[in-house]
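Side project, low priority. Logging it here so it doesn't get lost.
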Amino acid sequence: MKKLIKTKDNSYTFYSEKYNEAYHSTSGALEESFKKFVEPCKIKPGMNVLDIGFGLGYNSGAAIQRAGRIKIIALEKDINIIREIPYIKVPYYFTDAYEIIRKAALHMGYRDGRVELNFLIGDARDTIKNILTVKEENKFDAVFLDPFSPPKNPELWTVEFLKEIYKRMKERAILATFSCAGIVRRNLQEVGFKVKDGPVVGRRTPGTLAIKAPL
C-alpha cells in the first residue's frame, strides 16, 4: 500500500507502508533529485547513468533535464510504482523532462535519438547482473543509489551489491546516495570507493559521494 503525499517544494511522493518510509525527502522530492543526485554527479550531455531505485523517476527526469542527451538504465523492483507515474503532477519547470518519464513508464522504455531509458524490473541484486559492460565506454559515468534506507532495505547496501555497481562504473565515475550511515560508508570503502560528504539537503546530515578512484 502507498499513500500520496505532497512535499515542501510542491512535488509529490508516496509513503510506502511496506517499508514505513517515503520514497523521497518530504522537505522536497524534486529538490533532493537535483541537489543530492544530479548536481553532485556532475551530470552532463552524453553520460551513461545507472538509476537504482527508480521509483517515480524524479532522479532520471532531473538528469534528462540537466543533460538533454543521456542514456539511463533504471533498476526498480516494484512495477506498481512505475504504473503510478502517468498520474503524478509535477511543477511546471519539470513538465518537459517528466513527460519523457511518463512515456517511458507507459511503454516500459523510451528512445528518441537524444534520450534512451531502459528498465530492468526485479530485485536489483539479480537485474544488475544483466548489465554487461565489458568495454570501458559502455560503463556508467554516474550512479544514483536511491533505495529505501539501510535499516529498511539492507540488501541494497551490502558489500556484495556495491561490488556489482563498482565494476560497472568508469574510472572517476561518481555514485551519489542520500545515506551517510557508517555501515554504508564503510562498505563503500571496502569495495574500493573514495568516500566523501555529499550535499546537505533537507536534513542536518549530508549525503554521500563515492568516487571510483583509478587503480
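Brief comment: The radius of gyration is 16 Å.
Revisit when time allows.
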